[in-house]
Automatic annotation (TrEMBL), chain A:
This is ComF family protein. PANTHER family: DNA UTILIZATION PROTEIN YHGH. Residues 220-262 form the Phosphoribosyltransferase domain. The lineage of its organism: Bacteria, Bacillati, Bacillota, Bacilli, Bacillales. InterPro entries: ComF/GntX_DNA_util-trans (IPR051910), PRTase-like (IPR029057), PRTase_dom (IPR000836). Belongs to the ComF/GntX family.
From TrEMBL, chain B:
PANTHER family: COMF OPERON PROTEIN 1, PRIMOSOMAL PROTEIN N. It comes from Terrilactibacillus laevilacticus. Residues 135-287 form the Helicase ATP-binding domain. Keywords: ATP-binding, DNA-binding, Helicase, Hydrolase, Nucleotide-binding. This is DEAD/DEAH box helicase. Residues 319-461 form the Helicase C-terminal domain. It comes from the Bacteria. The lineage of its organism: Bacteria, Bacillati, Bacillota, Bacilli, Bacillales.
Amino acid sequence: MSLCLWCQSIYAHPLDFRHLFSVSNQVGYCPQCLVKLEQIPAHQSCRLCGRDLTKLDAIYIKDGTCLDCKKWEEGPSHGLLEKNYALYSYNDFMKEIMSAFKFRGDVLLAEGFKPIVQMLYKRVIKESSLTWFEKARYLFFYQMGWQFKEYPYVIVPLPLSQKRLKERGYNQSVVLAELLQQRIIPAIRRSEDGGKQSKKGRAERLNTIQNPFRLDSDYTDAIYGQCVLLIDDIYTTGTTLRLAAAALKVAKPKHVISLTLCHG
Amino acid sequence: MTNEIQNLLYGKKLLLDEMPFSIQELDRLCQNGLIEMAQGIVQSEIKRPWGKQTIHRCRRCGNTDQRLFHSYRCEKCHQDCTYCRKCFNMGVVKSCSKLVTWVGPPPKFLEYKMPICEWTGHLSPRQAQASEGLTKALMSYEDYLIWAVCGAGKTELLFPAIEKLLQDGRIMAIATPRTDVVRELYPRLNKAFPRVRMSAHYSGSQDTQDSSSLVLTTTHQLLRFYRYFDHIIIDEIDAFPFHHDAMLHYAVHQACRLKSSRAYLSATPPDDLKTPFLKNRLQGTRIPIRFHGHPLPVPKCIWIGNWKRGLKKSRLPSSFLKWLIKTSQLNCPIFIFVPSVTILKNLFHALKEQVDLSMDHVHAEDPNRHEKITCFRQGKTQALVTTTILERGVTVSRSRVAIFGSEDAIFDEAALVQMAGRAGRSLEDPKGEVVFFHYGKTLEMMKAINHIKSMNREGGF
Ligand SMILES: [Zn+2]
Ligand SMILES: [Zn+2]
Ligand SMILES: [Zn+2]
Ligand SMILES: [Zn+2]
């Protein structure tokens, strides 16, 4: 029996093999709350930004990507961010959860997404360019809960400015990244005044905006030649993640992809 | 500046972060012993046979359920910080947050010597009797219960009592479980007591800096107060979530001064009030008649078989359909209560296909909730399929009530009585009709019917 993280009703866990023997007090959402979330189907998502294509009119889709992504691809910053993985559509219910989690201080809400975020991470490894043997090895290690010696991906959460961090007490992207239970590399910093970015910031504008992110030079070696996985709470226009990717470019990563909890 | 702080903080317990004053100013007052700052979460250790256990307690809501605490690495205090998940909706309380209270001399409250009540209506003899009893009990700091049927006119009978108590310099609160009621009641009270300094508190409302003598608040918002009231009048004490939630009892307890008393209003008082009342350990009055003097409609029971199975195939029980069509010809609004949102949707679609009637459905999380209810009130929709959210407060004249699947465990005696109380509330149509459509009578259904019958008997019918 568990207490739902959101509505605090009591519900029974579906018994599966692992739960039978684990003593960890798992936290999660009850079935009634879970159905209100809209999970993005893996096979029907935009192959570039991870958005749910079933919610889009056919005229906005071209070769498995949405037109927004097409624009990014044709713009000057194409290839900066190779791909984004997203878990949920940003519907009204998700908005409520995110506002409690991000702005009102209910940190524990993220914990309820742990199993599904870890599952997505496994998908990221499966779809990577590693050899089948490496993939199998990593997945086995991950399943067993062992730490990797070297990482298939360097996990970099998107930072908050120092001022925001102090106000809020935590960075939601770090909290989400910690769900993966792998080492986190805080390679990017965010300058104090970079909080507001222009709303019309699309592909064309990317270079003209003052980039609020910069690389922490202590981590140049950790990034060099590596595959980077950026973690953020939400993918909206894709500008923020691309700015972060641009900041990493100095350290010459092999490629940069990202994982977000929501898309919308 | 000090005056403003005094007015805001006297009798309150607020988070330091939400204070509109500078930290330096507050620190200075703290050193002078005028305000007190306390840690938001108290931590203690208990020795158990298997070792030490850390126990947290929230200073604001009194929560000690350890499942509703969570600790994380806090970047503000650079330690592991614990926060309370029970009351975080009112602004999160963490180990490193401070709760501030005024401990210096109290501010000046307005004095009311002249007659202040401008309400000109009349009370029925029963109402007047209850009002007098209430005034007397509260005057001598004793608790009081008003056990009145739905539609007895509970608010009006408070007016004379409030006037007398305010004239005596008492500070009072009227607490109710729901925001809607606070917002509906506030203008009415304002009209009745135009010269009294009063404030309304609900989630999202602003904190006033006046020291008000009459406070209208949701039960949750009582947590912001600390030893402020001489009297708290708690409306609908039986309503969800009050009678399950220890937090709200704590809220009432700590918002009251050490010498204080409470009044309870209810149509279906919970056992912990009913028993002392019946054994004469708690003062109170029963008002078994509605203000229009007609008896409460007694619910009828109609068996509809295994409706759940039928509903899956979009089949509706024929006796229910027959009743609905017959009632709709009377041209009066119909409430159809259902046990859950899933059933709500299924039933609504089935009805839509099979019955030609202007209908709508509404539940707690419906964004268009208020518009739909207004439409129903104005008679634009004739039937409203709803979950239990409308069981209280909403009054539509001439309405008929059907409770579909009344054997469901969600419908307890109090809920059933409240829903039945929606019918026959106006003078033009005092009879109304209430039907329980069920698949097997339950104890709660029988209790509800007996409750209504005994109220009628006591009312002399
Ligand atoms: Zn839930
Ligand atoms: Zn896309
Ligand atoms: Zn609390
Ligand atoms: Zn802290």
